[in-house]
Design goal:
Length: 245
């Protein structure tokens, strides 16, 4: 119990090099088939003059099998920070909630809100420490601090990128096509939310591993708020389908 109370890291199994387990466990002639993680999602985020829009789908897949249509792929880290989920659902959910714990602890100790840059750096450092251990994670960390809006991409290799437009997941190439056509910094709030919603919708229409509910969030100086949650099938037949253009 003492080790659990004083150590932020997982207790790892014994062995010369635990990080090599996933690679070496399947090399013997009698070993089972190698692990293949089947994933699929569409998440996006972009910064504009009025704030940040985050839009995600809600489908969880296990290869061709749709496991769930109601996954919450936006992780509410703090009242001013949001994270997105792409890759392994367990990895994203656990580590972004752990980031929330550390962010609240920072605010308690320092009497000020953690910056988006610092929060994303904490997550990137954790990922770097566990690089090679089989984590699967491609997330965005978005929020607002005293420097203004911030949007970062962090993945399971510890890579951390700052940008104005990101899309992550199997449907991201389709979402980028819509974002490239419609994005501009001077969008109104309504236009920005509609662009995020439309980009994810068209990605779900072309990517079988994305779908379900399209959730749209807006981040501004006062914090984040959920704008909408729309079924992508309803959007197709009522707004975006070929017969509604």
């Amino acid at each position: 119990m003492d080790a659990l109370a004083t150590n932020d890291s997982f207790i790892l199994s014994g062995g010369h090099n635990p990080a090599q387990f996933l690679k070496t466990a399947f090399e013997n002639e009698d070993a089972p088939e190698d692990l293949h993680f089947a994933k699929g999602t569409t998440t996006l985020g972009f910064v504009f003059n009025e704030g940040i829009v985050i839009a995600v789908d809600s489908r969880s897949t296990q290869g061709p099998y749709i496991a769930s249509q109601s996954v919450q792929k936006v992780i509410e880290i703090t009242p001013n920070l949001l994270g997105t989920m792409a890759g392994g659902a367990a990895d994203c959910s656990y580590w972004e909630r752990e980031l929330g714990r550390r962010a609240r602890l920072f605010e308690f100790q320092n009497k000020k809100r953690i910056t988006v840059a610092a929060a994303s750096k904490i997550l990137a450092n954790i990922m770097f420490a566990y690089r090679g251990y089989g984590l699967s994670m491609g997330t965005m960390v978005a929020g607002w601090d005293h420097t203004g809006p911030g949007l970062y991409y962090v993945d399971n290799d510890g890579e951390r990128l700052k940008g104005n437009v990101f899309s992550v997941g199997s449907g991201s190439t389709f979402a980028y096509g819509v974002l490239d056509q419609g994005y501009r910094p001077d969008l109104s709030i309504e236009e920005a939310c509609e662009l995020g919603r439309r980009a994810v919708h068209h990605a779900t229409h072309r990517d079988a591993y994305s779908g379900g509910i399209i959730n749209v969030y807006l981040i501004q100086e006062g914090g984040w708020k959920k704008i909408s949650g729309d079924d992508t099938n309803d959007l197709y037949y009522e707004r975006y389908g070929a017969y509604n253009n």
